[in-house]
Amino acid sequence: MSGTITIDEYLADSPDATDDEVRRMKNRFAVMDRRGDGNGVVSQAEFINFGKFVIEIADQNGDHDGRMSREEFVDSVTATK
Q1: pTM of the predicted model, to two decimals?
Q2: What total of structural domains would you count in the chain?
Q3: Domain range holding 58?
Q4: Burial class, 42, CB count within 10 angstroms (exposed 0-12 / middle 13-18 / buried 19+)
Q5: How many CA atoms does the CB half-sphere of 11 hold within 13 Å?
Q6: How far, in Å, CA of 53 to CA of 72, rounded?
């Protein structure tokens, strides 16, 4: 399909990824696809919408200004125990 990427193309961007990173990348791809039309490929719009979703989630932990600050990013990717 024109204007879309497959999971193999998405993974090809990181040929030296660890098993854990490959698992995370596959999970991200699956979420992007599920949040879109679920057709097994990711369009540019699905990719962009996923990025907006990540910013929205991170911003919920901060000042709710629609932007992700460095601190909000760190908070969003740091595992809490």
Answers
A1: 0.74
A2: 1
A3: 4-77
A4: buried
A5: 16
A6: 14
Q: Over the stretch 39-49, which tens digit does the pLDDT of each residue have?
A: 999 999 999 99
Token couple for 71 = 């601190």
Three-state secondary structure call for residue 42: strand
Q: What is the rounded distance in angstroms from the CA atom of residue 47 to the CA atom of residue 28?
A: 10
Q: CA dihedral defined by 6, 10, 15, 19, rounded to 10 degrees? A: -100
**What are the tens digits of pLDDT across the range 53-75?**
888 887 876 678 878 888 887 87
Question: Which residues neighbour 22 within 8 Å (Cβ) at sequence distance 6 or greater?
Answer: 11, 14
Q: Which of 51, 49, 75, 53 shows the shortest CA–CA distance to 63?
A: 75
* Rounded CA separation 31/42 (Å): 10
Question: Which residues, listed in sequence order, are joined to residue 43 by a DSSP beta bridge?
Answer: 4
